[in-house]
Amino acid sequence: MVKSVKTTMDRLPIGRKEEYDMNMQEFRKKIEAQLEHPEWNIKYNQKEATLRIEDTVTNKGVTLSLRPLLAKWEREEYAGVDEAIRYVKVGLESMRQQVQLKGNESHIFPVIRAASFPEESKDGKKLVFHEHTAETRVYYALDLGQSYTLIDHSLLEQSDITSESLREMALFNLRSLPKSFKQQEVAGNTFYFMNAKDGYEASRILDPTLIEEMGKKVQGELGIAIPHQDALFFVDLVNDTGYDVMAQTTLTFFGQGRVPVTALPFLMGDNGIEPVFIMAQKKPKGPSN
Questions:
Q1: Environment class of residue 272 by beta-carbon count within 10 Å: exposed (0-12), middle (13-18) or buried (19+)?
Q2: What pLDDT does residue 209 have?
Q3: Rounded Cα gap, residues 112 and 260, in angstroms
């Protein structure tokens, strides 16, 4: 869809500010054209280079940052631009749906977020979450098909569901999801990349059965990473190269995710998973502070 941007615009070298500004303006117009809708208002913030798309019916909206999208376009990563536009459209459409938990219990799942993730929604409602590690928290989502909504306490009250019951439902549903992996070996260390593409890859770190299975499979130390919402991988760490590659891969994935979680990988210890900072060419001595 947005791939036509390249064919309808002259390639402009990004060096001087004037060239960048002109390129950004042309790019913005093309993105706005993709988001035209009779009931959506689009506002451009030139200083921040963002588009705010708001639904005139719900008075809710989505903010789209253009700088990373322009960078993707310049690298000819058109699928990433298409995905961002689809995310906006699906998000705005889902905001019109009437959300209720009763009758939708099987569509409730846990989602992993960074420990710094907001505790309230943008309209001031307190979100339901549980602590996980020093780096992460567990929030809860109602799956709406092509999108989802995070569950807040007002939804729980309306449905007469406790936060503990919500947690149990979400974890039960999580265990029913498929667990397929792609396997890759690097210098004797085996990497297992989750290959589900359902939006709950990182959430599977909450499945104790999966962690136990992977722990039995490895010959060395078990490494785990959840750099963003759609990524989870395990590593059978048998030498220092494995630690280095795990750290580098986690950091790379962290920078690519739409919903980043943590750039620190984890190691399986006696007390569960613990985040670690890995120095290059050195095996980590213990958990981060």
A1: exposed
A2: 94
A3: 10
> Phi/psi of residue 86, each to 5°?
-60, -40
Place of tokens 């670690």: 276
92-128 per-position pLDDT tens digit = 887 777 778 988 999 999 999 999 999 998 778 999 9
Q: How far apart are CA 132 and CA 180, in angstroms?
A: 24
The type of residue at 76 is: E
pLDDT of residue 122: 79
Residues near 111 by beta carbon (within 8 Å), at least 6 away in sequence: 138, 139, 140, 141, 148, 150, 200, 202, 203, 229
Q: Write out the two tokens for 168.
A: 């149990």
Give the pLDDT score at 287.
44
116, amino acid identity = S
- Phi, psi dihedrals of residue 79, rounded to the nearest 5°: -60, -35
Q: How many residues does the chain have?
A: 289
Which distant-in-sequence residues (6+ apart) come within 8 Å of 93 by Cβ? 147
Confidence of residue 50 (pLDDT cuts 50, 70, 90): very high
**Cα separation, 24 vs 19, whole angstroms:** 9
